[in-house]
Amino acid sequence: MTSEPTTLTVYVAGELDYDTGDDLVATFADHLGRHPGPREVRLDFRHLTWIDSAGLAALLMIHRRAGAVGAGLRLDNRPGFLDARLRLTHVFEHLVGPGDFSGTGGRSGRFSDTGAPGADGDVTRLGVT
What we know:
The chain is α/β, with parallel strands linked by helices. Helix content is 33%, strand content 22%.
């Protein structure tokens, strides 16, 4: 986690799930309590390996808490499987914004709205084994 006067960046690595989601929300809330005033919160997912419904709930809680203090939320470096889950659960536009593809860094192999694998054919990002 890094904090600048107006930006808080949280680096999310590994699995964001039932076992870790509450810890992420608590850490975020604790930081906001000690360092109020960020105008922007950035979650960096470059090292995210998995997310489940509890992880998605954690993202929604962080979105709500960021909004409550007047901070915008950005989801950076989103892996394809995260975008697929956000779309599948119909929260992509709520958390990311309509048509925002910047979180993927412009990589090819994006998922379609139907949750189909990317152009590279990799279905593992969908959690399919």
